[in-house]
Every structure is written in C-alpha cells, then in structure tokens.
Amino acid sequence: MSKAIYPGSFDPVTFGHLDVISRASKVVDHLIVGVLNNTSKSPLFSVEERVTMLKKAVKSLPNVEIQSFSGLLVDFAAASGASVIVRGLRAVTDFEYELQMSQTNRKIAPEVDTVFFTTSLQYAYLSSSTVKEIAMFGGDISQFVPDFVAAEVEKKFAEKGECHEQNRTVD
C-alpha cells in the first residue's frame, strides 16, 4: 500500500491546496494531510481549527486522513509509515525552495521520496497569505476558498478586530 504525506500550514486551506490533495489522493492508496504546528509562526487559526476545516473540506475523499504534527517532516513520515512526501509547486521560486528541502529530507531519510505536483493554472497565483490579506481588507475571498472557510476567515478577523473595509469607488 502506497502512503504519502502532504504537509503544510493550511492557514487557511485554499482551493489550490484542495486541488493538490484531490490529485494526490488519486495517485496513492492513502494520503495523510499533515497540518504543521509551527511554534515559530503566529497563524490565524489554531492547529485544531485548521484540522477541522480540512476534515470538512476533504470529507468526500475516503483515502485522505488529516493529522497535525510538529517537528521534522521526515520523522512524521516515518511514524506514519509514509514513504512519499507530496509538495505543490506554483512557480520557479517554489521549486528552488522545495528542491532544497527534498534533498535535505532525502539526506536525513533516504527511504522517503518527494513527489511534486505542479499547481493547476487557475490556482498558480494563490496562497494562504494572499487570501488572508484580501480578507483583512474586507475583500471577497469566496473564489479562493470553500464557503465555510471564507466564513471562518471573516469571523476570525472580526474577532481580532483586524478587518478593514476598503473604500471603493467606481469611475
């Protein structure tokens, strides 16, 4: 049985992430989406909230499991019995970083390979950071994330008092 891990922050999960998850789930028998609990960052959502949103977003994919993790990705892969790491690539800059990471991971854990999925063209520009920035300024993010995620993002910014309505004029 082939088992892979698709790691990330998913803060929040976007249609780009879901595209990679869907495509990767067709290539492996079991896909674990690993939600990174990175203590050096200040995410918008807690790891538990991100796990919950991802579970809801992938409920129609029976071979996809959502788990949180911290520490080294290769250690999480070993503990999960996964021999493949899935990564998405949007642009050349992603490739340079991801190649370096995959080579480092391969050095630490030679039994783990990295497979790259190029992002579908309609999501090549999309990132969680962009989604958060648009939402923070009162923009519509419904074309970038599932509706329930958009509602959670808007709610979170409202709770934090960080949502700024932008004055828009039409010429």
UniProtKB/TrEMBL annotation:
Is NADP among the key words of this record?
A: no
Organism of origin: Cuneatibacter caecimuris
Instruction: Note the subunit structure.
Output: Homohexamer.
One Gene Ontology term of the molecular function aspect:
pantetheine-phosphate adenylyltransferase activity
Q: Quote the record's binding site residues for substrate.
A: S9, K41, L73, R87
The protein's name: Phosphopantetheine adenylyltransferase
Q: In which pathway does it act?
A: Cofactor biosynthesis; coenzyme A biosynthesis; CoA from (R)-pantothenate: step 4/5
- The UniProt record lists the Cytidyltransferase-like domain at 5-133
What is the protein's major site of localization? cytoplasm
Where is it located?
Answer: Cytoplasm
